[in-house]
Model the fold of this input.
Amino acid sequence: MKPNQSLAIRNKKKSTNKCKSFFRYLRDKKVLFFMLIPGLAVMLVNSYMPMFGIVLAFKNLDNYGNIFGGKWIWFDNFKYLFGSSQAYYITRNTLLYNIVFILIGSTIAVILAIALSEILNRKLAKFYQSVFFLPYFLSWVVVSYLVFSILSSDMGALNNLLKSLGLEPINWYVSPKFWPGILISVNTWKWTGYDCVIYLAAIVGIDKSYYEAAAVDGASRFQQIRKVTIPMLVPLVIILTLMKIGRIFYTDMGLFYTVPRNMGILYKATSTIDTYVYRALSQTGDLGMAAAAGFYQAVLGFILVMTFNTIVRRIDKESALF
Done:
């Protein structure tokens, strides 16, 4: 038998053995795979089937909702998005707001989680945890009225405070320069408690023997946090950051549309890609343009996730998502 024939037979046997071992693994873990089916079905219906709608970005629909009809117009829908004079600042707002949300939200959430884990009185810790978590359950409509009660030009709490200090009241809803700070504050207040609970759960799960070993070596409580808690949280911070980066070109309609009360004079500070598309769609009903914007957001988000994951993998392979 020739050497090449022998090598081919060995490769074939190896491939057959791998196939058998794969099916044996499926058979042994069939219960776990069966439990996986509902989750896969939900992901298939919600995440993968809508992808066929991408074709809408390149078509001019002949009637509402018929994705198989209509004329191919390729990139004309993208021209509507990028040809607008607002294209620059809606993209800038979307990107910069999300970067600030990620940086500030993650930092404050980690600090709060560490602070809560250090409170020895468990009842007091649970109370603070509930207070931080409560805004997460409030709808954006409720949040918008809470913000209005603070910022109202006539009866707002903030203007009443300014008057009591002898300062001029501010008409917040016609002053765009204040809204980046307002939106960042509201978003941080609403979402920090949610992230804080995730980080707190990770801290509680850290093996206590690490802290005991550090204490035996004479480490102070602050040194234990710096050398044990924070390094153990880094992989979780990276994973959550990667997930947020994947949606960095998406924004919360409640925050950017409901809270500023859709005031036209604030658009330069509050308009994002999502709110711009919503307003354009509500006025023109053009699904193709909305699909183009969604495709644009998805592609940029995918590129950012892949880039950031590659950087993380080169720094620390274990912390990368894939």
Residues 87-118 form the longest helix (32 residues).
